[in-house]
Amino acid sequence: MKRGFDRMDTEGPEIEGIERVDNDIWQVPLGYKPGMRVPGRIYLSDKLFTNLEKEAVDQVANVATLPGIQKFSMAMPDAHVGYGFPIGGVAAFDAEEGIISPGGVGFDINCGVRLIRSNLEKSDVDGKVNNLLDSLFKAVPSGVGSKSRIRASESELEEIFTNGSRWAVEEGYGVEADLTHCEGEGCIEGGDPSQVSAKAHKRGRPQLGTLGSGNHFLELQYVDEIYDPVAAEAFNLKQGQLTFMVHCGSRGAGHQVCTDHLRNLTRAVEKYKIDLPDKQLACAPAQSEEAQAYFGAMASAANYAWTNRQIIMHHCREVFGQQMNMDADELGLDLVYDVAHNVAKLEEHDVDGGKKQVYVHRKGATRSFPAGHPDVPKAYRAVGQPVLIPGSMGTPSYVLCGKQSAMDVSFGSACHGAGRVMSRSGAKHTFRGEQIQKDLSGQGISVRAAHPSVIAEEAPGVYKSSSEVVDVVDRLGIAGKVAKLMPLGVVKG
DNA sequence: ATGTAC
Q1: Where Mn(2+) 1 is bound, by residue (predicted)?
Q2: N or C: which end of chain A has fewer CB within 10 A?
């Protein structure tokens, strides 16, 4: 196997000081680093353990030192090193005594995934995949700095930042059911456009309905396997069915929000005299002006991301209509669900035998609420929320459903994807985009990309096995496998 | 992830 050149590729068989406490559960004990207020927990199989970076474990321990952290500083099986907090990290902080930190959310605020089902079967697109991909590639601007034809006015942008994807539906980019089939109905309450800088407004205005770059994609897929027939029926999924996935985030607007507020919260660390093991953990007391300003801006960026995915989905539906020569009812391109992978949310959880309000930071982690939870859409209340896990390019994606254990062990959270094992720079040295594209084509998977280098950076070999990651959360009962989706064609940013 | 460094 080809290998890259940087430390992310080194296989570390032993990480001193961490302990296995159960199958797939590793503990970072209080003594691992000074100042830890709670232990760390890393949910990981033996096999994935060989890819675990020591620096990611150190980050789990660093997060455990933050004021007001509850139960454990956690990392999902797809964890790897991130800015301050690990990607794949989950941490909940007391809403009164705790902190809020942009590092716990990441730069791509509400990077997330939506899944669309259809009345079509795989065979219905035989010989049409390439035309569909070409049209999708044209309909959704992609790549770094891409812009759309939509120009939201200042008042429209403020509405999007405040209320999320409802604006898009009211403007005709979708239907009411798209909102009820979306995490939080496409909105985090508390979005505050006045905390979003003029620069972030300016970057966001021309980017509604654009895909972006990196691991973001549009994917034509089919249901290859059903694991849980009851949940699959609730989600309106069946064997052989054509599905469609959108993976993207808040583009330049979210990035700018993170940049702006990191600067502000770095100053707040001194003001509130918070002792940090790593400057990248910049944060402020949850109820402070600075933390609430960040939260309002972060919620705005999250709302922008949901609107972005809503508009992208609408344009893709139009493409399907034209290419398949079918109307909306015939196509049945209904939104199954949309999940955020990078957000902080104010939620109620059971802690120490009582209910508590906490700011749950999920950075590369999916909410995974179980059956019966009031925040699960009514249509899915009997089985749990859909948990959408995109594969890396050319590998399967998974649909899971939220399970009760998630509420007990991970503040209602599960993994979010495969997780990188090689950096982008390593990947560009190791792979050539044209060759990867050819290899995938040989497997029956067509790829379109804004630039070949993106294909190299996102080559299947730079990610862990999504199947292995998903199996860990399934075994732990954090989320249960419902269906496996295989790619037919991909549009990369 | 990102007007891919300020």
Answers
A1: 108, 216
A2: N
CA of A286 to C1' of B5 (A): 31
CATH number at residue A168: 3.90.1860.10
User: Which residue is closest to B3 in terms of CA–C1' distance?
Assistant: A145
Query: Which is more confident, A4 or A424?
Result: A424
Whether A460 has a binding-site annotation, put simply, is no
The answer to whether position A58 is within a domain reads yes
Distance CA(A73)–CA(A93), nearest Å, equals 10
Q: Answer yes or no: is pLDDT of A420 > 90.
A: no
- Residue A416 designated active-site: yes
Listed as ranges, the nucleotides of chain B within 7 A of a protein C-beta are 1-4
Split at pLDDT 50, 70, 90, the class of A425 is confident
**Domain of A213?**
17-420+462-490
| Residue type for position A296 | G
Cβ of A249 < 7 Å from strand B? yes
Stretch A456-463: mean pLDDT: 92
If one compares A214 and A374, the residue with the highest pLDDT of the two is A374
Q: Is residue A452 part of a domain?
A: no
A247 is in an annotated binding site: yes
Number of domains in chain A: 1
**Entry pTM:** 0.96
What is the signed CA dihedral for A388, A393, A396, A397, rounded to 10 degrees? 0
A468 contacts A48 by C-beta, under 8 angstroms: yes
Percent of chain A topping pLDDT 70: 97
| C-alpha to C-alpha distance for A8 and A5, rounded to whole angstroms | 8
Q: Is residue A69 part of a domain?
A: yes
User: Distance in angstroms, CA of A294 to C1' of B6?
Assistant: 23
pLDDT surpassing 50 at residue A376: yes
Nearest alpha carbon to residue A255 among A315, A202, A313 = A202
pLDDT at A12: 43
Q: Nearest residue (Cα to C1') for B1? A: A108
